[in-house]
Amino acid sequence: MMVRLSRRVRFTVQPNGFAGGGIGAYFELDAECQGNPDPATGYLINIKHIDQAVRDRAIPIIESAVRADPAREPASHMPDIIDALRAALPGLTRVRWRLTPALSVEMEAAHMTKALLRQSFEIACAHRLHVDALSDADNKRLFGKCNNPNGHGHNYRFEPAVEIEVDTNPTWSPADLEAVTNESLVARFDHKHLNLDTPEFGQGGLNPSVENIARVFYDILAPLVRDRSGARAALRSITVWETEKTSCTYPASATR
User: What is the pLDDT of residue 222?
Assistant: First the structure.
């Protein structure tokens, strides 16, 4: 039976090189391995082995980058990190470096010329779930409290996942993603009543379910990422969280 095992390692890096004090950078690194577990132990690999490999092989690369070349784009370090880990973790399939709680860069071991840049954003919106073709009674039965005539609100979180080319001088950076997302989505939808203030979900538009919001956001952002990067970056997917318990990713065909 084939399984995927993921392990997260948390660590800090002191930019000045001293281990004793001062303000350090805090990171997390996810390592994913795939294979067949040992039939006797049930283990694919001992997680202590993953921890040790990350601390011995990957963290020194990150420490060196933070101290010697902090302006270099993090994605350009990912091939070195994967090469270093693969020697100790033969089943390694992907690595995700979480630079902040809202920003990460990820690379698949089988595709080391590309990386996946993910950044989270937040907006506050009101909406009402209602389908004009249905009766008021059917809408109330189907959508319950979400059919409240005056609407209700959510603090939505959404995360575009952009595939970029790996380069020491990339044409698409986290700053680029933040700028185009703020301009095209945050400024457009934040603090809006989706049914009343936006053509996408207004009269004759789509019902503002989390599924439709994810699709609309993707359709708006994808061509902008492509055009502004000179086709060197592509929006692979976008995930929208309506609550911490409910999210939708579009398109579903995109890999994680």
Answer: 98
Structural domain boundaries enclosing 175: 119-250
- Token code pair at residue 82: 């994967």
Continuous H helices in the chain? 47-53, 59-68, 78-86, 136-143, 174-181, 187-189, 194-197, 210-228
Count of domains in the chain? 2
Are 95 and 202 found together in one domain?
A: no
216 in the same domain as 185: yes
- Verify that 29 and 124 share a domain, yes or no: no
> Residue 235 maps to which CATH number?
3.30.479.10
The residue from 146, 178, 200, 211 that is catalytic is 146
Q: What is the pLDDT of residues 200-236, one digit of tens each?
A: 999 999 999 999 999 999 999 999 999 999 999 999 9
The pLDDT value given to residue 16: 63
* Active-site residue, 49 included: no
Helix (H, G, I), strand (E, B) or coil at 179: helix
Q: Are residues 123 and 245 in the same domain?
A: yes
Whether 125 is catalytic is no
Q: Are 59 and 3 in contact (CB under 8 A)?
A: no
Catalytic residue among 111, 152, 183, 191: 191
Rounded to two decimals, the pTM is: 0.90
* pLDDT over 90 percentage in the chain: 86
Choosing from 73, 159, 163, 242, the catalytic residue is 242
